């Protein structure tokens, strides 16, 4: 009877250990994917800001030229 109990405890311990290791591995992979998505969103956000800043700069240049023309007239 003791041998059966020992085998059962060993099998249960191994099962729990493999389950925990598997869970941790899957969780780490999920976390890495989420962090990578965050980096991609940050890069996209920076590109949008750059485009907006260029647009604003062009508008300011146009307004400056217009103001200079009005002042010269």
Automatic annotation (TrEMBL):
Coiled-coil region: none
Entry GO CC: mitochondrion
Segments passing through the bilayer: 6-26
InterPro entries the UniProt entry points to: Pet117
Alphabetized UniProt keyword annotations: Membrane, Mitochondrion, Transit peptide, Transmembrane, Transmembrane helix
Keyword Transmembrane helix listed: yes
Compartment list: Mitochondrion
The keyword rRNA-binding belongs to this UniProt entry's keyword annotation: no
Primary location: mitochondrion
UniProt record, GO biological process: mitochondrial respiratory chain complex IV assembly
Family: Belongs to the PET117 family.
Protein name as catalogued: Protein PET117 homolog, mitochondrial
